[in-house]
Design goal:
The chain is of the alpha/beta class. The chain is 52% helix and 15% strand. The radius of gyration is 16 Å and the shape is globular.
Length: 225
Amino acid sequence: MTAPFIVAIDGPSGAGKSTVARRLAERLGVPYIDTGAMYRAIGWLAREAGIALPVQDADAVARLAEKTELELLADPAGTRVSVGGREVAGQIREPEISLYASAVSAIPAVRRRLVVEQRRMGRERGAVMEGRDIGTRVFPDTPHKFFLTASPEVRAKRRTRELAERGTPQPFADVLAEIEARDRADSTRPDSPLTLTDGYVLIDTSALTVPEIVDRMERQVRTAG
């Protein structure tokens, strides 16, 4: 593969994007960029600033996004995220922050700010980049687009297991309700909704192992050249 090139991986929460993207990036020798972590970081920052859900003052959140320095660093254990020099990778994975991330990602000014940063990072060295609108808005011209999905129940089981492993267990019913709420918010927001469009390779991950998914994607990318 010749760099820089972009592999776009989009899909709903819990479809396996982060795990798959990290492993695919290792195989292809390019950085892994978790754009969802950026929205989670802004959501965490909004909560820290005392902004409640539902967000009433979108301008206040936009100002936070504009003035905050974000840094993403790939790590074998997961993406490390710093906000204004403070590492917050653990804090942004709290269940409540998923709802904050969905809320702030619906603010056009926040998306514009972060899309600029995502494009800058991708153009520097190429990337396997995952999120909600990588193939539709951030890098719509890349030929390497994948849309990962799974049933809400399967995704909720994965998320419940992940939270338990992190020491922050949540009831399955609560996790399922959160995932369904985020699906509705992400797919109906007016600015860059989560959408499966032409050009994507659709992969239902419900019954597939991570290696099977990564193998399929790697073959597709290398074949496309």
